Amino acid sequence: MKPGSRLCLAAVVALCLTGCAGLSTLSQVTKSTALYDLTPKSTYDPDLSAIQAQLVVEEPTAAGAVNTDRIAVRPNPYEVAYFPEVRWVDRTPLLVQTMLVESFENTGKVTAVGRQAIGLNSDFTLVTDLREFQAVIEGAEDGPFTVVVHLNMKIVQEPRGVIVASQSFVQKIPAASDDMNHVVAAFDRALGKAMGDAVEWSVRQIAVIGG
Hints:
Elements: H1 3-29, E1 34-36, E2 51-57, E3 61-62, E4 70-76, E5 79-88, H2 92-107, E6 110-115, E7 124-137, E8 145-157, E9 162-174, H3 180-209
Parallel strand pairs: 1-5, 2-6, 2-7, 3-7, 4-7
Antiparallel strand pairs: 4-5, 7-8, 8-9
Helix pairs in contact: 2-3
């Protein structure tokens, strides 16, 4: 084979290898990630009092391990990991804020409720600390998942900026299996129960204060 032919052959082989590597990289980049959403609370005590007040729901604060769109799991009390190839549709605090706003709206008992970002002049502000929002492994390392949701809620009366009530709401729900759909269903139930209790408590507290 002539020297020039060898060079051409080498160039073609190199180009093919580069192309294969590029396709492999592109395949990894475009690999589908499953996105999961949650649902707001929609059923409440029919005796819940109506309040004549405007409520603003701030974005919840959260530790760095939870302040992400990744779905957290704790293999043990000291380690934080994430389920592979799955994510929430938004950062967890924003997702919880959306669910809280919709849950308050679904009561039909609040004059107006919205996010802090839209600039409402509120009568009350709901400040939430998202202390836990993850699956944990109970017992042995290969044990079943249990979802833990812990919301700490503070009601701030405006315009004084005074905390008038504070309460924590914790729910633990076991997943039916290790299937991701069952794990997310446990997240949905745990958050729904915690939010339901938190929303009813908030409305009752504001009613007592004079909302």
